[in-house]
Amino acid sequence: MPLHVSLVSADAEVWTGDASLVVAKTVEGEIGLMADHEPVLAILAEGQVRITTLDGEKVLASAQDGFLSMEGNVLTIVAGNAALVS
């Protein structure tokens, strides 16, 4: 079962889809999340969120001032400021 990811900022949905891996920077360091990861709640640090889609595409976003929550195979990343990096 894939990991369903939703990355949102305070005013818009930035990216939603299925992924094989997400790496995000938290106040305690980087965390990598895959399907079937144990539940986690963490505070985001300013930095990149790196998403690897199921077909291997890399999606990069900048994010700050928020949190991430993993429950089941659903990862929600809520940031005060977030945007895709081109």
Automatic annotation (TrEMBL):
How is this protein positioned relative to the membrane?
Answer: Peripheral membrane protein
One term of GO molecular function:
proton-transporting ATP synthase activity, rotational mechanism
> Which family does the record claim for this protein?
Belongs to the ATPase epsilon chain family.
Recall the taxonomic lineage recorded for the source organism.
Bacteria, Bacillati, Actinomycetota, Actinomycetes, Micrococcales
Write down what this protein is called: F-type H+-transporting ATPase subunit epsilon
**Signal peptide start and end residues:** none
Which species is this UniProt entry from?
A: Microbacterium endophyticum
Where in the cell is the protein located? Cell membrane
| UniProt superkingdom | Bacteria
Q: Which UniProt keywords apply?
A: ATP synthesis, CF(1), Ion transport, Membrane, Transport
